[in-house]
Amino acid sequence: MINSTSESSTNKYHLPKRIILVRHGESQGNKDDTTYSVTPDYKIPLTTRGIEQANQAGSRILDVVSGHGSSENWKVYFYVSPYVRTRSTLREIGRAFPRNRVLGVREECRVREQDFGNFQVTERMKVIKETRERFGRFFYRFPEGESAADVYDRVSHFLETLWRDVDMNRHHHDPNDELNLVIVSHGLASRVFLMKWFKWTVEQFEYLNNLGNCEFRVMELGAGGEYSLAVHHSDEEMLEWGMSPEMIADQKWRANAHRGALNDNCPWYLDAFFDHSADSNDKEGEDVKSNNCIDLPLA
């Protein structure tokens, strides 16, 4: 929950208009699984196709942040995973942006790929991934590696830093300009980022599909001050990502909701955890309900 001091400070600089999550382009590992057995994951490069995808993504992202050419006062700040394939993706994306539009770039280790262990023997990894499907994608921890839950924890820490960066204006953002934050990362890190932000449950996460190479998700600030995927993306797109109708309805509500408002129709804030909830007209019951309000998850 944002306290009054933090909210006042943030209003001074204004919130980013958009936060855009981008997956890297096609890597040699995406093309050939055996690459992981001879090359450290963080050193795996993009393929020629991946470079082309990243270049095209730069043009598409430019189109989004410039309002299809209608905005004159936009700026962009990048965060990037330290892996070779994400840094190479950023390099190609960056070719689309005039230098005077880029406020800065920061390498951020906490949005790196899920750790699957060190060198990955192909046949062994096939068995391990089959086991993960039986166990559950979120909680399964790779031997000598991480679970998605571990990635969730470090991405949560990154979100706290991201909020402080906005709150303290570390982006050196002129409040008269539209600030766009672009995070060039990996598929799972992007999904858990969204999970954390929108308070999706583990069950909801399990149904989410991975982003394609150089696909991106646009969280845009709605008219009332909440971020929503529905401002930029269609219902059909969100369904393809594995979002349920209830999740999509929440995104559409957020597109016009006032910051801090309560979405009474959001089932996973209360209804999903109880078989029934007794009605109450007393103040104690009202207090319980108020504690389920939606807040900006960066704090």
Structural class: alpha/beta
Bulk shape? globular
What is the residue-averaged pLDDT?
A: 89
In terms of DSSP E residues, the strand content is 5-15%
What distance lies between the first and last C-alpha atoms, to the nearest angstrom? 6 Å
Please report the number of helical segments: 11
Helix content: 25-40%
As laid out across the biggest beta sheet, the strand order is 3-2-4-1-5-6
Helices, strands, pairings?
Layout: H1 4-13, E1 18-23, H2 28-31, H3 48-65, E2 74-80, H4 84-94, E3 102-107, H5 122-135, H6 148-167, E4 178-185, H7 187-198, H8 202-206, E5 216-221, E6 227-228, H9 235-240, H10 245-254, H11 283-290
Note down, in words, how this protein is organized.
- It is a single chain.
- The chain is of the alpha/beta class and 299 residues long.
- The chain is built from eleven helices and six strands.
- A six-stranded mixed β-sheet has the order 3-2-4-1-5-6.
- Helix 4 links the parallel strand 2 (74-80) and strand 3 (102-107).
- Helix 3 (48-65) crosses helix 4 (84-94) and helix 6 (148-167) packs across helix 7.
- The radius of gyration is 20 Å and the shape is globular.
- It starts with a helix and ends in a 9-residue tail after the last helix.
